[in-house]
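Repro:
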Amino acid sequence: ALDSYEVEAIDYLVKPIDPARFNRAVDKAISYHALLDSASVSAGEPAVGVADHIIVKADRRYVKINLDDIVYIEGLKDYVIIHLPEKRVVTRLTLKGIEEVIPASGFIRVNKSYIVSRDRIDSFDSNDVFIGDTEISFGASYREAVLSSLLGK
């Protein structure tokens, strides 16, 4: 798993491979490549952060996203997918760029590719956070800080 982050893999599978998990990985790869080919994703412009929302450029227009609506943010190389309860907003930014405009008190970076809303975490264990049906693994270098933060230490 750790090697997959170093080579910037879109996803990884662990043997024995569950068919449903395989299908999710394939869907993720297809979505990523569709984003790369999509003419509707605008060239990156910096995100703007205000007290309760951010403004990003997506689909050739500026989109206001309330911070309370963000479930998690997924970084895919030059793109960021902001997952909201009812939709996804794709913008050509880096995860680091988004991280600079969202409040650290409301969000936590759990690995190289994900930032999650603290309020949206349903449960967690020593390796993963769970948000609804989504399971996001901690990166090895983030584990101690994430667990300390979530446990309030």
